[in-house]
Amino acid sequence: MPELNRYKLAHVTVFAYDGPVSESYNELRLRPRHDETQSCLSFRITTHPFSRPAAHQDFFGNWVHRFHILPEHRALRVESETMVLVHPPEWQPIMPTSLADFDRTRDELMEEHFDWLCATQYCPLLPALDELADEAKAKCDGTIHGFAESAALLIHENFTYRPGATHVHSSVEDALITRAGVCQDFSHLLLSLLRRRGIPARYVSGYLIPRAAMDAQSAMERVIGGQASHAWVQAFIPGEGWIGLDPTVGEFIRERHIHIAWGRDYGDVAPVRGVYKGHAGQSLSVDVLVRPALDDEGAELLQETAAAPPPRPDEELEQEQQQQQQQQQ
User: Fold this and answer.
1) Rounded to whole angstroms, how far apart are CA atoms 292 and 304?
2) Which of 121, 89, 58 is nearest to 241 (CA)?
3) Distance from chain centroid for Cα 65
4) Are the CB atoms for 258 and 228 separated by under 8 Å?
5) HSE (CB half, 13 Å, CA atoms) of 178?
6) Taking a C-beta distance cutoff of 8 angstroms, is the pair 257, 244 a contact?
7) 225 beta partners
8) Phi-psi region of 241 (alpha: psi -120 to 50; beta: other; left: phi over 0)
9) What pLDDT, in 10s, does the model give residues 4-34?
10) Rounded Cα gap, residues 241 and 160, in angstroms
11) Other CB atoms closer than 10 Å to residue 138's CB: what's the count?
């Protein structure tokens, strides 16, 4: 019987504008997927100013919430609260597929998994990746599973986790030059490397549950996943299905990863994106809290986020109340 784990997630995004804006249209991908490895027990979105988000599923089956705020406002706060039950499937013995056997199925895989093999804006299939691919092949056990694992470890060991080394629109080429980046960059790099080898792969956004230990690795994970959203890769291995690889942490995906959405690259799964009318600039702050939903005695944990953005200004609260009164009339 696999171990069950329940987690509570809080994700707060605040946009502060240096002047009034209006007609804000926004799209969110914050609700966890519901599948054989995890169950989304509850999910709630609140926005300030007030709105009523509408939900649908996109082409890849991710939950999307859209909302708009028409009146003028100087800040936008989006809060999501989620309860997730993680239940990893039991391990099943597999028959490893050699690289040579895999290569004979590449045309078939291209036809079936084109979206997960094509080049994208963030993941160009650069010839410069061939050197990394050759090194991963030399270090692996000769199977396609081993190649995927070696590729993820190669990136983990040879690229430095350094916030600020890249930006949200950086591509694989930038990561190859700087040899540094964050989880988004490492995931794009692994995607490009796997796809160039002919392995279908997709970008996954979600959260990482940091280890409880106090060693250096655990401290790094608290920075990577405990205070922001995380990203990793799923690769399709014939005979095994989709397996998760985290090049930032350097391990296979287990019960400490909670997936929200997947797509061809970051552009398909951005947690929050939107547009607004006005000439004001904006600043962004994000706070994420991921923790067990129950304490050691089985009681519900209700602690608030430690780094939550400041409360809303009084004028925003008054505007929200007026808006609600107008809707009730």
Assistant:
1) 13
2) 89
3) 16
4) no
5) 20
6) yes
7) none
8) left
9) 589 999 999 999 999 999 999 999 999 999 9
10) 30
11) 8
| Tens-place pLDDT, residues 274-310 | 999 999 999 999 988 887 776 555 555 544 333 344 4
Count of all residues that appear for the chain in the document: 329
| Paired tokens of 82 | 């989620």
Separation between Cα atoms, residue 235 and residue 149, nearest integer Å: 10
Domains and CATH numbers, the chain: 5-87+271-328 (2.60.40.2250), 99-253 (3.10.620.30)
CA distance 314 to 274: 24
pLDDT tens per residue, range 162-215: 888 888 788 899 899 999 999 999 999 999 999 999 999 999 999 998 766 444
Q: What residue type is assigned to position 282 of the chain? A: Q
How many CA atoms lie less than 13 Å away from 44 in the CB half-sphere?
6
Helix, strand or coil for residue 184? helix
Query: Are residues 270 and 19 in contact, defined by beta-carbon separation less than 8 angstroms?
Result: no
